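To whoever is on call:

I kicked off a structure prediction for a single chain this morning and the downstream step that reads the tokens threw a length-mismatch warning. I double-checked the sequence; it's 406 residues and nothing unusual in it as far as I can see. Pasting both halves so you can look.
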Amino acid sequence: MAEKIHKVVLAYSGGLDTSVILKWLQETYDCEVVTFTADIGQGEELEPARQKAKLLGIQDIYIDDLREEFVRDFVFPMFRANAIYEGEYLLGTSIARPLIAKRLIEIANEVGADAISHGATGKGNDQVRFELGAYALKPEIKIIAPWREWDLNSREKLLAYAEGHGIPIEMKQGKSSPYSMDANLLHISYEGGILEDPWAEPEESMWRWTTSPEKAPDEPEVLQLTFEKGDIVAINGQAMSPAKVLETLNQIGGRHGVGRLDIVENRYVGMKSRGCYETPGGTIMLKAHRAMESLTLDREVAHLKDEIMPRYASLIYNGYWWSPERKMLQTMIDESQQTVNGTVRLKLYKGNVQVIGRRSETNSLFDPGIATFEDDEGAYNQKDAEGFIKLNALRLRIEARKGMKF
């Protein structure tokens, strides 16, 4: 017998899976369901989700525009760390989950719910991310993950359940996508279909945000990004909010074929997964941020950031955004960004992002008087390098002498 639940907050998209979950929760747990739909820039009309929830008898319906919070409090802090998972993935799905978990718990507190529910499957990373976040924010919360409980493990069974329980399912006109997709302001991801064969090349028709590099404009586009404390605050001199920055860079980058990625990644639950991603704005942001840091960060600070970055990225990928260790690393990262101020100039051309200039009026550590190959007027005594080299070679010379054969 199912544990007694009085009220549950469901992360609800309005699609087949979560609509079936909504009815299944009512039927299985005999509980009141509150729906929560997050607008994090997925580019879909969310009002149909409200109407469907009403049709299914839901009284409390939350549809929240979280786009600015998403970029300001999650995407930007992550990019201050230059976070990349396994050398390539810009963590577009991963970084959205802690925000959704946070809002689920906030709503549960507001309405007095004793449980939350989500539509993540038992094979993926998202179940871990949602639930680790929820437990970190509300330790005693109950979590219902239907995909780990029910036997509706195919689309045919879900459709049959929907038909049998009067759940309206809008069938999209024309050819439906064979891929499982997830989108937000940072990226759109594709899994399933032919992508389950890691040798198969993605179909060109799959990509939705980016122009094929071969068909991108023949003329490059130059843009300037202004940074304040590690965050982009203006594009080509025009001040913008965080969400507007990312939205604009997505449009510009997508036009030039920037940000396509095809990888096989290691999921936290233990399996390998092949996925394709479009992250045009994020690709531009990462390139520009590293260029700005190259001018304004001390060498050892920059190198230390690079050393901790893989750990930081894994924490986000694995669902530990709300962990004490991620917060500790964030404090250090944010402190490093106090001097990351200035402007980076970039050139976009047929899928490529090239840095062609960087400057900082107040925080540049680049000294032309020292770096020049011309007469440096005594700023750097080249003879000092001899002692520096010999001191650093001392241990190498000792080891070599020990190994000599006479």
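Update from on-call: the warning came from a stale cache, not from the record. Cleared it. Sanity check on the structure: Residues 301 and 336 are 7 Å apart (CA to CA).
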